[in-house]
Amino acid sequence: MPNAVPLSWYLILSAILFGLGVAGFIFRRNIITVFMSIELMLNAVNLTFVTFSYQFKQVDGHIYSFFVMVVAAAEAAVGLAIILTVFKNRGTLMIDDVNSMKY
Amino acid sequence: MTALLFLIFAAIAIFCGISLVVQTHPVASALSLIGVMGSLAVLYLLLGGEFIAAAQVIVYAGAIMVLFVFVIMLLNAGAETPTFQASSFVKYLGIFLLVAFLGLISFIIQAALPKTEGVVFGGFQGTTADVGRKLFTSYLLPFEVVSVLILIALVGAIVLARKEV
Fold this sequence. Notes:
heterodimer, A: mainly alpha, Helix Hairpins, 0% strand, B: mainly alpha, Four Helix Bundle (Hemerythrin (Met), subunit A), flat
């Protein structure tokens, strides 16, 4: 077995995780699971940043993925507060039932 | 050894990612997401990102997922009930199309990327000292802006979740 891992394997893993995140975002009906799919996509992007950081031998990619983490934390705090408000007003977590903007 | 570790943890990440999408209970999805984040932290270590691996475990798997699990428990979210019954043909076609799409993307990445020598453990060490030095010199302004963003998110979360007076 070769010792070195090709760079493309990391990028392919990242693409697969991103695709799974998109699939979860589209197919799931629970608003919390949809939110977790977004986090999965952000993680996949972070893996790409760190991979290219290795390739170019620079730490800039690490700093970008650090910023992505900070934005994800802010997004989780605000998003979960919005979910709490939606649940308080409508008593449901299913996104199909929250469609009064549609008509 | 690097390749073996990569394959093991990439398999765990993909398995947990699939589990995240197909599980109907939010707590099971959250635990799968923690599995993805943990295995990604190991991959970051293999790529020489020690600071980002630690931040991944502490911030993501620690803080953010605790927040998620807390909200799931608070809202007493149960298993998702399907709103409509998709036929099994549609389901299998969807799975097939998703796998075909991911395979196509993998092929394009494999074909388009120029040949490089590959990743070995220890080939590049982005130490915490390097990351910190760059963060507080070249990236000082984005760092400060992001701290303002955190403050706005803090205020926004409190305003959204407070009791109406």
